[in-house]
Design brief:
7 strands; alpha+beta; 9 helices; single chain; two-stranded antiparallel sheet; 285 residues
Amino acid sequence: MNESEMVQDDEISLFDLWERLCKGWRTIVGGVVLGVGGALSAIVVIPAKYESVTTLQVGKVAGTVIEASETVVARLGSPAFLMEMATKIGDDRLLQELRENANGKGIVNVSIVKGTAMISLKVSGQTPDEVRKRNKIIIEMLVRRHDETTLPLKDRITADIKLSREKLNVVEREVDELTKASGINSNIKDGQFAPVSLLTSLRVQKQSEIFGLRQLLASMELSLLPPVTLPTQALEASYIADRPASPKRGLLLALGGIGGLLAGVLGVFVADAWRRAREERRIVD
């Protein structure tokens, strides 16, 4: 037998491959069944995990952001914050999870929405109610801390408004008195116009001061109103899907079926190669 004949003997046509697969159909079906069964077992064993998604807006006071988005992300994902949250809601299982998984990954995931200063908050749990409770307390804690942080600044602006309003009232009374005095002295002879001119000059000066105070008051009052001042808040209601976020049943079943199919096909070819090797050894012997 020459070399070309040996190569031809070793070559396998597509028909031969198909024939071998048809003969080993039981192995292939068994592989698919085992793969799907493994996927079903994983679905049963892996605990269901639900997830809420909330978009948060960091507040600002007088145009100044309360806290940088990066800092908020680090705060919400910190073990200390999560421990405090779990303690407040009395979630012993969450406390245990945090002790085992100190960084809280998989429980709370926080990130900055690309291209914005908004924050995406994802909270996980084994039931929708559990997720809803965790999500609510996290937002409440963040809002409360930001309110506490901004309270001194708001109090200072409010005090400045009160002080400026009192000063405005004083200046307006002075203008009224100057106006009355100007009226009383309006009958002075032409040679004695100096007092009237002085009173008029003072009144104009006070009126200019009133205008400036009113502008300042309007600016400070507007600084405490939207959109210059906004609270930290959720931009929309938290979304919680009715179906678990994981395990993904369809994906697991598909992967199990495909994996079982490939394993079955591989098993057919391995069994065929083993059989052929045994037959060749018998011929040689």
